[in-house]
Design goal:
Strand content: 5-15%
Number of domains: 1
Radius of gyration: 18 Å
Shape: globular
Number of helices: 8
Largest sheet: 2 strands, antiparallel
Oligomer: single chain
Structural class: mainly alpha
Order of helices and strands: HHEEHHHEEHHH
Length: 212
Amino acid sequence: MKRTLDLTVALLVLIAAAPVILLAVLLIRLRLGSPVVFVQERTGRGEQPFRIYKFRTMTDERDADGNLLPDGVRCRGLGVVLRRLSIDELPQLWNVVRGDLSLVGPRPLVPRYDPWYTDRERQRFLVPPGITGLAQVNGRNGLPWNERLEYDVQYVENWSPWLDLRILVRTVGNVLLGSGIAVDPTATMLDLDHERHLLAQGAERQLSGVPS
């Protein structure tokens, strides 16, 4: 039933949003350049990797040493609008059609985070990842990692069609209000692997009696 709903809704939204998608493609090509679609590997159900698709929202601007500038600098103007309206997420409907994603589920994260989940948090891999999820409607990028991942586990433990429906309704509301969007999440919080590596180092120092 979940798969049937995913496929039906994804196809209907892709058809309805076709003019918006075509306009986004044109504007991104003119303002931000090529490629129009950003592709990144994420970890999905059963800890299997897959490629996720999003519209490009950042330029390739670099500093004098050739390093990419921070996301908050490279994402502005059109990129900010695309993120505020969640238009950049529309290509992920193709991931839903392919079966990589569900409409609702734990948000898929990058593979380098895989070694840093607790056993409880690994329950997120028991279900298909989603475009939106319980964490996304309860704070999104404003939540600490522990809370975000706990919401993912709660979703797995309490899944029902009605829970999916409530999350989808709240997601639409959040999109219309533009709430919970962070242009540069790394400006306010560490990446999961970095944060937990630092915590592990601190714990080791405490055990060895070395001041942190």
